[in-house]
């Protein structure tokens, strides 16, 4: 049973108090902007074209609705947890209190894969848009460093992805409040660019482009939803900020749910206009929104969109990197990874080692692994995390009804199970290769746990001290 030792609320309170915890600097608006910053970016500016061309066709609208609903059910569960347990680590920390250490480690290891790959997906998309932008000025990167490792096409490393990852790592080191201010400004610019695209593109919509509406059948819509799911995972990163929020009981549910609602409206609107402007078969490009504007000869708007996309995708990358650093910090603070990773430095109290580790992991993945493979691997990790959080909320409501909950999931006997069923349904539609890599990753994680984490767990060491004192 020591494999399932749990972290108590009192233990977490000691961890997050005083100098041992992260600096509290965020409010509800900051959280909403973090959520919109993370959710609106790659999904609109990159994944819309891939999903429409390969899986859903014009029915990408339904794909985004289905994946958005699955996220909405999970978001309600995250909101209850984040308002009740204001500690870094997101789903990893929640699982530690409900299921125990082994399950928490499995989920934390899974989230390391999710965030690491998400950072890489977004960095690859950022690189594609940046190169499209400078190409308009007649500039071009050396072909060998223009994309991920593919010797058959003469590319060996994505150089611009590595550059933007380094820049954002340096911004994260400056501190949470300073980083949030930059994010807020860029998010507002990003929303303005999307509204500009909608305002111009709606006049070039041809209803004939929506026929056939479902060219790949309903299975294609679901496959598209499973892939497009990547677009919505930002609120998971928002929940990782709970330890740095001034009033988490009130602000966390507001930030998570409001950002998801805003983003669903924008995704559906862009999907309708984009597939109406250009036949879906032509959208399998790295910059589909700018491409659609070029097709209708609105190059000046395409230039603004490319610039806005770069800024927008930057905020997604920033929030994903932020979530990854807080995950490394939380797991290391518990002793399941080497504790120096959780070291806080300077007045801003930033985990510099965790930030450096995040940069290194994302740089390697984005430089070497193709975009489509990165997206599927990210999704399977996220879906698994959402399922565990939904199950955890239900179990904790039954076992610990006495806990103070500022936000409660409505229809507790229904919503968590809708989250589990919808996320599970999307998981089974991912490819066998994705499942195989996911299982290999979990096996590696179990080896690390039993060889290192189990023996260095602070919860385990605390339990041993109690046993020694009692004896």
UniProtKB/TrEMBL annotation:
It is a multi-pass membrane protein. Keywords: Membrane, Transmembrane, Transmembrane helix, Transport. Pfam families: AA_permease_2 (PF13520). It is found in: Membrane. The keyword Transmembrane helix applies. InterPro entries: AA/rel_permease1 (IPR002293). This is APA family basic amino acid/polyamine antiporter.
């Amino acid at each position: 049973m020591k494999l399932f030792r749990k972290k108590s609320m009192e233990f977490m309170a000691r961890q997050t108090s005083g100098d041992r915890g992260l600096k509290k600097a965020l409010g509800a608006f900051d959280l909403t902007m973090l959520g919109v910053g993370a959710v609106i970016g790659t999904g609109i500016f990159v994944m819309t074209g891939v999903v429409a061309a390969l899986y859903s066709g014009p029915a990408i609208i339904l794909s985004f609705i289905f994946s958005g609903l699955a996220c909405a059910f999970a978001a309600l569960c995250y909101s209850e947890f984040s308002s009740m347990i204001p500690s870094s680590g997101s789903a990893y920390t929640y699982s530690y209190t409900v299921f125990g250490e082994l399950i928490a480690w499995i989920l934390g290891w899974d989230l390391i894969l999710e965030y690491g790959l998400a950072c890489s997906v977004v960095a690859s998309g950022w690189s594609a848009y940046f190169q499209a932008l400078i190409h308009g000025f007649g500039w071009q990167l050396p072909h060998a460093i223009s994309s991920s490792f593919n010797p058959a096409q003469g590319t060996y490393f994505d150089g611009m992805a590595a550059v933007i990852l380094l820049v954002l790592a340096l911004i994260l080191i400056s501190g949470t409040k300073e980083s949030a201010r930059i994010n807020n400004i860029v998010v507002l610019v990003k929303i303005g660019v999307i509204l500009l695209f909608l305002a111009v593109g709606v006049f070039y919509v041809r209803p004939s482009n929506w026929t056939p509406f479902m060219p790949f059948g309903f299975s294609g819509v679901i496959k598209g939803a499973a892939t497009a799911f990547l677009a919505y995972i930002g609120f998971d990163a928002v929940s990782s900020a709970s330890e740095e929020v001034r009033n988490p009981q009130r602000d966390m549910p507001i930030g998570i749910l409001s950002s998801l609602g805003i983003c669903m409206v924008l995704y559906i609107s862009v999907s309708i206009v984009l597939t109406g402007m250009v036949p879906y078969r032509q959208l399998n490009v790295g910059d589909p929104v700018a491409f659609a504007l070029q097709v209708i000869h609105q190059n000046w708007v395409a230039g603004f969109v490319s610039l806005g996309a770069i800024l927008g995708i930057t905020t997604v990358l920033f929030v994903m990197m932020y979530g990854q650093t807080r995950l490394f910090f939380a797991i290391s603070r518990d002793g399941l990874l080497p504790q120096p990773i959780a070291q806080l430095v300077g007045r801003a109290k930033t985990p510099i080692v965790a930030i450096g580790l995040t940069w290194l992991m994302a740089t390697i993945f984005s430089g070497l692994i193709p975009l489509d493979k990165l997206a599927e691997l990210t999704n399977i990790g996220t879906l698994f995390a959402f399922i565990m959080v939904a199950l955890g909320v239900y179990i904790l409501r039954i076992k610990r009804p006495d806990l103070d909950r500022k936000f409660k999931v409505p229809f507790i006997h229904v919503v968590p199970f809708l989250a589990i069923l919808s996320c599970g349904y999307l998981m089974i539609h991912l490819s066998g290769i994705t499942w195989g890599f996911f299982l290999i990753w979990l096996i590696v994680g179990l080896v690390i746990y039993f060889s290192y984490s189990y023996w260095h767990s602070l919860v385990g060491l605390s339990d041993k001290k109690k046993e020694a004192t009692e004896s």
